[in-house]
Amino acid sequence: MKHTIRIALFVLSTLLLITLAPVAAQDAPPPITLTLAAYSTPREVYGEVIPLFQALWQEETGQQVIVQETYQGSGAVSRTIVGGFEADIAALSLEADITRIVDAGLITHDWKDNDYQGFVSTSLVILAVRPDNPFNITDWVDLVQPDLEVITPNPATSGGAQWNVLAAYGAARRGHIPGYEATDEGATQFLRDLFTNVIALDPDARASLLNFERGIGDVAITYENEIYTGLAADSEYQLVRPTSTILIENPVAVIDTYVDAHGTRDVAEAFVAFLWTPEVQTIFANYGYRSVNPDVAAEYQAEDGEAAIEVVTTDDEHVTFAPVEDLFTIEEFGGWGEARTAFFGDEGIFTTLIAEVQGS
Question: 195 and 302: one domain?
């Protein structure tokens, strides 16, 4: 009899636990998976941002978010998405790579309809040199000196590489490279001379700088933010901000076709909106990106600073950004719609030039 009573009490207590204790768990929506496809350089940023968003979303909705991440060159990411890789969000290096996805009919909303025109971060094209700057590189013109070895990513796969090409060309055409006429012809000649010294065209900006860290080349053309990321990992090099360079603008967009197919629109839109919060913009700034949030940007702006050589360290409370004498944007070339065809199309300036250089 006692044994029967004990069994009955056990069954009753078990039923109570099932019906009362897990009510919250039973009511919670099932986990949802979000796929982020991004260009290579902000991997560390998203490594910090994603857990913050996951915690926030779970707190607000009770739902667990699983984020799948993939990183490669911006152009490669864009083409992969158009080719059928079902990413929910694209975070890319340049607007033209988002436009490719729009033109494929996968992004149907106006992704630029917000206070930041769809750009989540900005940066500059700069030069990375060896400690103590043995070749005394202070500006673009020093990259064409004899026997100098230059590395930069491949414009065929890397958005960063396309920014690099336009930065060099624009600086020359705007009259900031001595010895070259401030014309399209003079800028093209400078680009030709520069790429004669290029010894490696890596698939993306991160791979290019990693090769520089391994001892390949004398100077790397790269993103300003990559210098800060490298120094945080104890790499040794020096940053040279050219007198004239281009403002890099990095877009992010929800991919309508795929979020609707996956049922992830709400969480994808919330994640993208989260990227513009002051908290996340501060994370971007700490990794060397120039924030698109004016208030955050003001906190990181150096009051004084040389536009050329600067030894950057990560010992300070946070990084600061020195000004550039002549900072221009993609509008120098009529926007990405015109620039991509004019420079990187089948008959483009760079396409023709690199074929000549590699064939010589």
Answer: yes
More confident residue, 74 or 173: 173
User: Considering only CA atoms, which of 308, 165, 167, 288 is closest in space to residue 235?
Assistant: 288
Same domain, residue pair 99 and 204: no
Enumerate residues 6+ apart whose C-beta is below 8 A from 254.
88, 89, 107, 109, 111, 265, 268, 269, 272
Q: How many domains does the chain have?
A: 2
Q: What global pTM score does this model have?
A: 0.86
Cβ–Cβ under 8 Å, residues 288 and 225: yes
Q: Are 292 and 281 in contact (CB under 8 A)?
A: yes
For helices 336-344 and 159-173, the axis angle rounded to 10 degrees is: 90
Kindly state whether residues 219 and 261 are assigned to the same domain: no
Q: Would you call 67 helix, strand, or coil by DSSP?
A: strand
Strands 150-153 and 119-129: unpaired
Q: Are residues 185 and 324 in the same domain?
A: yes
Write the DSSP string, 280-320. Answer: HHHHHHHTTPBPSSHHHHHHHB-SS--SSEE---S-SSS--
- The CATH number given to whatever domain includes residue 201 is 3.40.190.10
Q: Are residues 113 and 136 in the same domain?
A: no
Same domain, 304 and 269: no
Same domain, 157 and 199: yes
| 8-state DSSP, 30 | P
Instruction: Give percent of the chain above pLDDT 90.
Output: 71
Tell me, rounded to whole angstroms, the distance of Cα 94 from its chain centroid. Answer: 8
pLDDT for 72 beyond 80 = yes
- CA 23 distance to own-chain centroid: 42
Q: Which of 19-33, 115-129, 265-279, 289-303 has the lowest mean pLDDT?
A: 19-33
The structure tokens 């391994």 sit at 214
Domain that holds residue 180: 123-249+297-359
